[in-house]
Amino acid sequence: MAEGALLALVLVSRVFAGDADEDGLDDGLEDALAHRFFPDLNMHAGTFKGVAHGSYGQFYGGGAFTRDEPLAVVPFVARPVAGFTDASTGARWCDGPVRCVEVMFGLPYSWDLGDDVFGRSHRGDSESVGVLLAHGSPLEGEPAAWAASWEVARGDATAWRRVKTFAAAHMCALGDSSGFRTDRSADALGVAEAPRLWVAEGKNATYTGQRACKRGAILAVDDCSEERVWIEREPVLQRLRNMGEEGASGFDTRIAWPAQSRGGPLQEAQELWTAGPFGKSTPWRFKLGAGILDWGAESWSCPSKQR
């Protein structure tokens, strides 16, 4: 099925699916926003440290070592964002009833293959990306040509625009290079397209641009320069799974656990919200849970032993 047809199917068939986690957003709208704004990812796909297909091969969104496992899913959570003050400008953002929505995407990898300097490979890698969406300018008093009322936007994913992006890179670990970006078109705040992000070779850290990747991590060891591909979107979109809020019923929150070896089969699925470390990586509740990101201060919370 073509990507456009898949998105249309989501928009038409899921928009009135109910609100199982009772967060004020229809679950169908959450699905449609996730499909619309899941990032385009540029990954290393060559052989790395003797392992074929690089980071892409380890990625749950269609990688060579994960694609045959039905529960190699790509998790996401969508939730309304309350109004906040931008720490750098003092401006108010997102005031009003459900003016903004946060979509947090998990980027699961069976293995972190390490880097060329320090090594540091480990089983499992729970990476993440966040987007802040609005159905009109989130800035108080600023008009937007693409503004839509909540009555319209609550059932139409095309009424929303991306206004900020967060990319986790060694989040809360030594060499943390995570960062936010405010997203603007040529003449206004907000863009309709998914973000285009770069994933570091081996370590799977995610960056808002290739230049940022080259400056990332301890001693700038992250690399986004060779044997790169923009991965196919459709296999990822087919694996997107809404995990709902932690503790909510009505969602299948299972996800396959990482392989015991770098090219081996994935392990038995566990519950995303209640399980412990994802292999040797941070538990998912510390990457996708409510309140992890502060969009106003452009900061993130760091529980102990983040990897």
What features would you describe in this structure?
The protein is α+β, with helices and mostly antiparallel strands. The protein has one domain. It contains 7 helices and 16 strands. A 6-stranded mixed beta sheet has the order 8-7-6-5-2-12. It has a 4-stranded mixed beta sheet with strand order 10-9-1-11. A two-stranded antiparallel ribbon has the order 3-4. A hairpin with a 6-residue loop joins strand 9 and strand 10. Helix 1 packs antiparallel against helix 2 (27-37). It starts with a helix and ends in a 7-residue tail after the last strand.
Low-pLDDT stretches? 1-16
Instruction: Tell me the number of strands.
Output: 16
- The geometry reads as globular
Helices, by number, come to 7
Mean pLDDT: 91
Main beta sheet, described?
A: 6 strands, mixed
Structural class by helix and strand composition: alpha+beta
Which percent band covers the strand fraction?
25-35%
Q: Largest sheet, order of strands side by side?
A: 8-7-6-5-2-12
Radius of gyration of CA atoms, rounded to a whole number: 18 Å
Distance between the termini: 37 Å
Compute the number of structural domains.
Answer: 1
| H and E string | HHEHEEEEEHEEEEHEHEEEHEE
Helix content: 10-25%
Quick rundown:
By secondary structure, the protein is an alpha+beta fold. The chain has helices at 3-14, 27-37, 54-58, 150-153, 210-214, 233-239, 285-288, and strands at residues 40-44, 74-81, 84-85, 92-93, 100-112, 122-134, 161-167, 179-182, 196-199, 206-207, 228-230, 240-242, 254-257, 267-271, 293-294, 299-300. It has one domain (3-244).
